[in-house]
Amino acid sequence: MPHDTGSLDATVRIVAEAAPDADRSGSFPWAGIRAVHESGLLETTVGTRFGGKGGSLYDAAHILAAIGRGDPSVALITAMTLFNHLGQASRNHWPEDLYKRLLEEAKARPLLLNAARVEPELGSPARGGLPATIARLTKTGWAINGHKRFVTGAYGLTHFLVWAHTDETPARVGTFIVPNGLPGIEVIENWKSLGMRATGSHDVKYHDVIIPAENVLDLVDPSLAQQDNRAHAAMTLALTAIYLGVAEAAQAEFIRFAHERVPTNLGHPIARTERFITLSGEIDLLVSGARQIIFDTLESSQSNPERLIRARIIAGRQLRDAVQIAVRGIGNPGLGGDLGLERHFRDIQAVLVHAPQEDTCISILGRSAFDGWRQDQSASSHHPTDIPVLKTA
């Protein structure tokens, strides 16, 4: 689905102008979010059957990379809503009347959806386990009680998608749609991260929060509720596009500095020195290479989890290294707040923090390689003259 490049660029400029203040204050980035909403980008992935543009994950990744150049915190909050619309477009698992009502409300204000899944005791569901948060059946619906961590955009969300188990016998597990602002919702302001400060990924507690009976998705037996990290591989690669934007913004600052810095003992911009030409080449190799990896893989391999996971790790590492080279190459000015590189350096540290984390991804690839070897051994036992060749995804 083609998008209006001029409109996207204009939105990114507004987002970028507001980013430094949002980073300093750590407050919800309303200026950036409103710009994204007014441009219509938040609804890009709404399905055509609901009157939307039907944008794909590939389209979403392009949008996230662009917004990430302006403010990755705004991009991350945007991503959660884009991904939820994609889920509804492909699975149609929301109560239809509720979903249509929310889309109607989105014409007047930003509709911001995000999952609340991580818990203090459980940690990330990507590592297995089930939620302690409880949904108690009432005469009119559900009462939600629990404590969630790292809820990105907590203050500005219109709806929390709370992962919980029911108090039924036998219990079921599902996602409960909790409108923000209801009595019993307590946001605990404890997000004090090195980077991505404006995401406001605070803890949220739910104390007997009452929601309608229809506000639930995917109620299933607990044995079916484990997070499938392989199934989410395409989405987490698309999420990496946010940090591609961060690295491209850092690259642009590096290039600008190199052309504007003219030492008196040199008499011309440092961009003309062999050292900075080489540094620029190293940064371009890593950043542009990561862009190729992300988008080529999303375009060609969305059904291959190993390729998606591999692309995410390689691209993420390259992007992190590229920003580090830019900061180190410039020296003291690169560490100062005025140039902007310091903020990009802090933000890029989160590139491989999102679930499933780097070690979990590496384990998936390691097991896949071992499984491939065992399959080859089994096949070669039937054809002993053949030489087994290790196959990779």
Describe the structure.
- The chain folds into three domains: 5-111, Butyryl-Coa Dehydrogenase, subunit A, domain 1 (Orthogonal Bundle), CATH 1.10.540.10; 114-224, Beta Barrel (Butyryl-CoA Dehydrogenase, subunit A, domain 2), CATH 2.40.110.10; 233-372, Butyryl-CoA Dehydrogenase, subunit A, domain 3, CATH 1.20.140.
- The protein has 393 residues and is α+β, with helices and mostly antiparallel strands.
- It has helices spanning 5-25, 30-38, 57-70, 72-91, 96-105, 233-260, 274-300, 305-330, 332-335, 341-348, 358-382; strands at residues 113-116, 134-137, 141-151, 159-166, 173-179, 185-188, 202-212, 216-220.
- Strands 1, 2, 3, 4, 5, 6, 7 and 8 form an eight-stranded mixed sheet that branches.
- 43% of the residues are buried.
- Strand 4 and strand 5 form a beta hairpin.
- The two termini are 28 Å apart.
- The protein is globular and about 80 Å long.
- It contains eleven helices and eight strands.
Strand content: 5-15%
Q: What Rg do the Cα atoms give?
A: 23 Å
Q: Count the helices. How many?
A: 11
Please tell me what the overall shape is: globular
**Tally of extended strands?**
8
> In this structure, how is the largest beta sheet organized?
8 strands, mixed
Helical amount: 40-55%
Report how far the terminal alpha carbons are from each other: 28 Å
Unreliable stretches, pLDDT < 50, 5 or more residues? none
* CATH-scheme architecture of the largest domain: Up-down Bundle
CATH H-level homologous superfamily name of the largest domain? Butyryl-CoA Dehydrogenase, subunit A, domain 3
Indicate the mean pLDDT: 93
